[in-house]
Amino acid sequence: MKEIFKWICWALFLVSLLEIVDWQTMPKDVKHEAILKVSISSLNEKSRTLFFLGSSRIMKGVNPQLLNDSLPNWNTINLGMSGNSLAQNLFFAQFLSKQPGKKVLFIELTKFKTDMPLSFSSTGKILDIPNFPYSYYQYVNLNKGVKNKLENTEKVFWDWLIRKQTGIKSLLSGEVDESYKTIGFTPVYKSNYPFQDSFINRNDMVEFSHNDVDLETWERLQELLKLQKDGIFKLVFLMPLNYKTEDELALEIPIYKSLPFSSKWEYEDQFLKEITNSSHLEDRNHLNYRGAMIYSQGLVKYIKANEKNW
C-alpha cells in the first residue's frame, strides 16, 4: 500500500512539474491573447471577419490595422504564428468555419507538416478548441493507415518529450526561448538582407507549374474547399512571396496553379514589381514593416475587387 502511495505521489509530482514547464515556456503574448479571446467570443451572425492563417511570414506581413482602416465593413484578425504549416492552418480553418458570422479565410500555402509548434499549441488552448490537442492528432491522422497512424503517434510523442526536456533545461539555465512566444501581427523595422533573390517572380510560376501536384496536400485542400458556403464561409489561398529553397516552389506552385481562380490571390505583375525590393525584407524569408505595408495595401485592393462575390 505504501509502495502504491509512493508511486501516486511521484506521478502527481511529475504532472505538476510538466504543468510548471508549460506555464513558464509556452507562448505568452498577454495583450494579443486577450484581444484574440474577445474577438472570437464576440463573433455573431452579423460579424464580417477576415482571418489570416499562416506562418511567421503572415505574422510579419499582414497589417490588420491597415486593413481595418481601409475596409470598415470587415474586422481583420491576424492568426500568423511562428512555425505554423498548412497542417495547423487547415485545422484552425475547420474550427473557424463553424463559428457564427460571415468569414473569409486567407491561408498561406505551405508544406503539410504535422509537428505542433509552441504558438499553435498555445493558441489552440486560448481558443478553447474542443478536445484539443487530441482533436488535432485525429485530424492529421485522418484517412491514414494503421502503420502511418502509429508512426505519426510515435513522432508526436517524441516531439512532446523533447519539448518538455528542452523546457526543463531552459528553466534550469534561466534561458527560455522567446522565438515562439508571439502570435499575430509583429512588425519588424529592420532590413537585414541586401538581396531580392528570395522573391518569387513570374518565371518561377511558369517554371514550376508543370511539376506534379502533391496528392496528400491536394486532398486536404479539397476537404476544406467543400466546406465553403456562399455568403458565410470563403477560402482564399496565398502563395508565399518569399522562399528559402526551390523545393518549396516545386511543392507549392503546382498546387497553387491547380486551385480555382476564385480561391486564390493571383499577384499582378505591377504588385510583384513594386514589392520586390531588398529594403522591404527583414531577412530572406520575411517582410519588414515597409514590405508589410505594401503587401497589406495589395490585399486591400484584392479584397475590394472581389468581396462582392463573397
Structural class: alpha/beta
CATH uppermost class of the domain at 31-113 and 183-309: Alpha Beta
* Helix and strand element order: HHEHHEHEHHHHHEHHEEH
Report the C-alpha radius of gyration, rounded. 21 Å
- Give the distance, in angstroms, between the N- and C-terminal Cα atoms: 66 Å
Shape: globular
Q: Would you write up a description of this structure?
A:
There is one protein chain. Helices cover 52% and strands 10% of the residues. It has 13 helices and 6 strands. Helix 4 packs parallel to helix 13. Strand 5 and strand 6 form a beta hairpin. It has a domain of 210 residues: SGNH hydrolase (Rossmann fold, 3-Layer(aba) Sandwich), CATH 3.40.50.1110. With 310 residues, the protein is α/β, with parallel strands linked by helices.
Describe the secondary-structure layout.
Elements: H1 2-25, H2 30-41, E1 48-54, H3 56-61, H4 64-70, E2 75-80, H5 86-97, E3 102-108, H6 118-126, H7 134-140, H8 146-173, H9 202-207, H10 215-225, E4 233-238, H11 246-258, H12 269-275, E5 281-283, E6 286-287, H13 289-306
